Amino acid sequence: MEHFFLFNSRLGIPLPALRENWEDYSLEKQHAILLHWEKIRGSIPDRIAELEETINFKQAQLGDESNFLRSCELNSEIAELASIINDLWLWYRTQQDISADKLHQ
Questions:
Q1: Chain Cα centroid distance, residue 22
Q2: Gap between the Cα atoms of 11 and 8, Å rounded
Q3: Distances (CA, A) of 5 to 14, 16, 33, 52, 80
Q4: Which of 13, 35, 41, 62 can bridge 74 by disulfide, Cβ–Cβ 3.0-4.6 Å?
Q5: Is the model's pTM score more than 0.70?
């Protein structure tokens, strides 16, 4: 099943990477792909929690940082982590409706 997904290093999870149109896959293959995606999708909240812990740690560092350049770096790192979390939530929510519809057909 892994050949239908590619690991996205930025998000830290595999994402769908289908080589054919969805309709070209057999119904059995579609269901297998969707079930695998549901397992991945189910791990997204845990991945978000990990990133939130990192943000909290960096925010604590920021509170104690007196070096302006390092403060800017920490702010940038926090912003990037927040952007990753936002993208993960988009994948989690958007794919939820599609997966549920396809699984119940």
A1: 21
A2: 6
A3: 6, 4, 9, 25, 24
A4: 62
A5: yes
Lookup: tokens for 33: 């792909």
Q: Which domain holds residue 77?
A: 2-103
4, two tokens: 């239908």
Is the distance from CB of 6 to CB of 15 less than 8 angstroms?
yes
Q: Above 90 in pLDDT, residue 40?
A: yes
pLDDT value at residue 70: 96
Inter-residue contact 97 to 78 (CB < 8 Å): no
Q: What tokens does 21 get? A: 């149109």
Per-residue pLDDT, averaged over 79-87, amounts to: 98
CB 60 within 8 A of CB 20: no
What domain count does the chain have? 1
